Every structure is written in C-alpha cells, then in structure tokens.
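Same chain as my last thread, 214 residues:
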Amino acid sequence: MKSNCAIFDFDSTLVSIETLDFLIAKNQAADEIEKITQAAMNGKMTFADSLRTRFANINLTKFEIEELKSEICNYLTEGFAEGFNQLRDEFDFYIISGGFLEIIYPAADKLGIARENCFANNFTYDGDKIIGFEQKNILAQNGGKPKIVEQILAKKSYTKIFMVGDGYTDLEVAKANSKVTFCGFGAHAARESVIKESENFFYNVRDLISFLKT
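reply #2:
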C-alpha cells in the first residue's frame, strides 16, 4: 500500500470546466447556471440546493452525456498526467466530486486513477432522457465529501493526506478532519472565500506537485 494519498476534486480542478454547467448551458442560459455554481463553490449556497436548482428545468439526454464522455479528456488540466507519474510510487489517487461518474471515468482512466477510487453522483434516466440524480447518494447531500473521506480513511491508513480542489466543499474536508491538508487550486477558478481560508493555494499544477512531493 502507498504511504500517502491525494484526493482531487474534478470540475475546475482535474478538468478546466464545470461539467454539469457545461451540459446544462447547452439548453439554458449559461449566466444563470454560472451564478448558481459560484454561489455553491463560494459557500454561499449549499451544494444540495445548488444541485437541485440546476436540475430543476434541464433537458438532457444520453446523447449529450455520451458526447461529453468522448470529449472530456480534451479538457484535462495540463500537467496533471505528468505530475501524477512523479507521485505514483508513494501516492494513491482518489477523485471525490459533486459531478457524475459517467463523465469522470474516461478522465480517470486517462490519468491512471482506479475507477474504484472515484466517488461522485449518478444520473437517473427515463429511457434516454435524464430526469435527475440519485438523491440518496452521499455526494448529492450537504457535507458529502468529508463523509467519503472518512470512509476511505477507515479502510486505509496514510502518513499524508491531501485534498485538492477549487471549491468550498473541498475546503470542508480539511475542516472536518485535522489529518487532511487542504490544497486550494486556482488554475481555472480562484475563489476568494477559498483563498482566504487556505494555508496552501496554488495557481498551477507544477507548484502543486512540488508541494505534494515535499
């Protein structure tokens, strides 16, 4: 077993886009969706409320999901693939996201992150139409990320544990568990509420990987 672990958010961290917003914006006003996302990521709206609000009037099908699955690796943040290779001997990697597993898996495969180490939400369908998300999923609820980290650490013991992300829900992981070192990541979205409470904040992959290696 590896001695350390690095847990990553997905949207605006491992990839440059907010995947759900990217999908919904094809059918709705992008500005309104962006406002909802920003409110949640800055800690001004609960994640569960933001998810429900964004899903309230969507019109998405399996076609859009399959299309983004085939394209998602085009949005991978430059430098992570190489950076992970520098850490792989000593680190286990995880993804914990409020996004959706269907979209995350192709990117995780590309980055060499085991699918069983990916935790996210699931769409619900009526035929080919997306009608919502599994509301019983821990990550569809408030405080979901700290709970998943708690489950991981109950099964494995690590010397160093890092949580990397751009949003307030990522910062909450370290607030809930003193063993976790939070690394704010602002290459795509530098949120003032997160910067203000972060001892470690990085604007590029190179500096983040250097910190994880120390």
